[in-house]
């Protein structure tokens, strides 16, 4: 049978055909019941079809960042980051990671007088990306680096890299005050950009928005507003918007929502092209350079090895989304200690494996033709553009920052995300489910975060703080001081099993151990537990007739997994409370630890 004949045997189905079939299968349920609304205000449809993908999809795949015949169809710089303690050791580390698979080095600087002759000894700047990063601006050092390149007769057109220092972000983080001289220094470097077209002296970053808790559309909307702030300041320095954008690296944090993060990078490019057009400047999508960092916010200090999986997911999203450069944070840094050389090597290898073994470099844009992702790109672009326009109508980025509008927006997003975490609607392995009870929790967790809105914060920080309360007690008084619970399951039916599983994770958030799980048919068959057990959790599908008597005769803390209509009456008999998804988990566990004699820290 020919290929043509094969396809003739199957009729073509339209989007309406699919929808009608779904409605038929749903019977009495409405089609809208299958639509999911995200925190970004995006409606996730039960299916996507070519008929509903009629918007203009620009070719923004960012195929080859450097025109070189040896490069694969898809290329990104695999970055290693080195904090400079002294020039000689930093140079040795740089040479080592370049031999281990890195394509570029990001030197973290804290002053402007490092000796470049020592720092860059034996490093061929023509063949790798050399970049710098700082928490406050050192533009004089970037000028010094450019002079170093010129004095060594290095072809400036082969020079690649960037300077990761967004001065507005530095101000927002509380590191500096804004200074007009910094804009003048940026403008001076950009005016010579034709001499080194692949080195980006200006950085516009979304990292602080993302890591402080902003959702995707707010993150992009704020990044666009900040971009216009930079464009306005620098066009006042007699620069064209096209020159500014071509001299900019957009530093973007990539989170765990895989398809959304892919779409985020492409939506950013779409909207930046619209901004360039508003400035009457013509740029192509490939003129926009994006450097990606894996997220700080998504990592957890609890069972931190799971961060390796999170990093891999985020790195894949960055690569497929079209990043030019990628740095993967070593997955042990969330645990509060300096990363080991082993974990730094693992982080570097993630990008190498995705290229060499997963072959993500073999195709220009694997998302082309995915109606779902194309719709996401369009919706994220439109929603973030609306946010951008709303901010622009009311004033500049600095106006909104000073008025507290940006803080309020991010605070609201972060609060909603934390509620989802504590209610376990957002599952984080090791933190609110499948906890590793008894793991060592670092002492740096003995205080809560500072409370500043624009501050990189792990989403799990409040859970880590609660866990530290018990682990600190155990460290001081021994493992026997850990509060222990028993699970009492009346039957093995799916409902009872689900409630038992819920109890494990619920108590595990606080670091409460589970000594045993008893399975009995009736409550009267439950024998007295060991003295070490201070909590009993009852799990059942059908309420036992002797529940009231059992609660009355118990001396330990009794919890019921699930909901009871007469919970208040049961509390009068001695029930501590019911645990379920509608409970304020943080408040409940705080009170439980307090009643167990474990004080707040």
From TrEMBL:
Pfam families: MM_CoA_mutase. It comes from Marivirga arenosa. Residues 114-461 form the Methylmalonyl-CoA mutase alpha/beta chain catalytic domain. This is Methylmalonyl-CoA mutase family protein. GO terms for molecular function: cobalamin binding; intramolecular transferase activity; metal ion binding. InterPro entries: Cbl-dep_enz_cat (IPR016176), Cobalamin-bd_sf (IPR036724), MeMalonylCoA_mutase_a/b_cat (IPR006099). Its cofactor is adenosylcob(III)alamin. Keywords: Cobalamin, Cobalt, Isomerase.
């Amino acid at each position: 049978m020919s290929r043509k004949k094969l396809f003739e045997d199957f009729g073509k189905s339209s989007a309406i055909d699919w929808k009608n079939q779904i409605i038929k299968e749903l019977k009495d349920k409405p089609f809208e019941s299958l639509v999911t609304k995200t925190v970004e205000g995006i409606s996730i449809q039960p299916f996507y079809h070519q008929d509903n993908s009629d918007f203009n999809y620009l070719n923004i795949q960012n195929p080859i960042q450097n025109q070189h015949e040896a490069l694969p169809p898809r290329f990104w710089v695999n970055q290693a980051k080195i904090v400079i303690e002294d020039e000689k050791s930093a140079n040795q580390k740089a040479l080592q990671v370049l031999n281990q698979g890195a394509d570029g080095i990001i030197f973290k600087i804290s002053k402007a007088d490092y000796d470049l002759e020592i720092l860059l000894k034996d490093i061929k700047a023509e063949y790798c990306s050399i970049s710098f990063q700082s928490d406050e601006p050192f533009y004089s050092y970037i000028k010094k680096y450019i002079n170093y390149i010129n004095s060594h007769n290095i072809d400036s057109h082969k020079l690649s890299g960037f300077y990761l220092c967004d001065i507005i972000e530095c101000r927002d983080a509380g590191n500096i005050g804004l200074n007009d001289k910094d804009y003048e220094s940026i403008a001076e470097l950009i005016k010579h950009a034709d001499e080194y077209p692949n080195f980006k002296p200006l950085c516009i970053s979304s990292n602080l928005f993302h890591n402080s808790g902003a959702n995707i559309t707010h993150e992009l909307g704020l990044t666009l507003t900040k971009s216009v702030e930079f464009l306005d300041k620098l066009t006042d320095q007699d620069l064209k918007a096209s020159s500014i954008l071509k001299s900019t690296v957009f530093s973007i944090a990539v989170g765990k929502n895989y398809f959304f993060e892919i779409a985020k990078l492409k939506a950013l490019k779409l909207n930046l092209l619209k901004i360039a057009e508003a400035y009457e400047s013509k740029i192509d999508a490939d003129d926009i350079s994006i450097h990606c960092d894996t997220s700080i916010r998504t990592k957890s200090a609890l069972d931190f090895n799971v961060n390796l999986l999170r990093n891999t997911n985020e790195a894949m999203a960055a690569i497929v989304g079209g990043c030019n450069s990628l740095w993967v944070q070593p997955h042990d840094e969330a645990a509060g200690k300096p990363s080991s050389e082993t974990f730094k090597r693992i982080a570097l290898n993630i990008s190498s494996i995705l290229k060499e073994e997963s072959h993500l470099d073999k195709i220009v844009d694997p998302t082309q033709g995915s109606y779902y992702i194309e719709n996401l790109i369009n919706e994220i672009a439109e929603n973030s553009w609306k946010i951008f326009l709303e901010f622009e109508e009311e004033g500049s980025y600095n106006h909104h920052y000073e008025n507290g509008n940006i803080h309020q927006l991010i605070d609201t997003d972060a609060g909603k995300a934390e509620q989802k975490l504590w209610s376990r609607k957002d599952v984080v392995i090791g933190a609110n489910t499948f906890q590793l009870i008894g793991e060592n929790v670092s002492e740096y967790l003995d205080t809560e975060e500072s409370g500043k809105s624009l501050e990189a914060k792990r989403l799990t920080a409040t859970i880590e703080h609660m866990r530290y309360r018990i682990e600190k007690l155990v460290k001081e008084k021994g493992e026997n001081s850990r509060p222990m619970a028993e699970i009492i399951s009346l039957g093995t039916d799916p409902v009872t099993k689900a409630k038992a599983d819920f109890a494990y994770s619920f108590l595990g958030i606080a670091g409460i151990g589970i000594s045993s799980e008893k399975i009995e048919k009736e409550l009267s068959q439950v024998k007295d537990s060991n003295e070490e057990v201070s909590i009993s959790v009852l799990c059942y599908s059908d309420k036992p007739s002797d529940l009231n008597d059992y609660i009355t005769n118990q001396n330990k803390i009794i919890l019921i997994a699930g909901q009871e209509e007469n919970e208040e009456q049961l509390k009068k008999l001695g029930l501590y409370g019911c645990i379920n998804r509608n409970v304020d988990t943080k408040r409940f566990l705080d009170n439980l630890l307090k009643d167990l004699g474990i004080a707040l820290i």
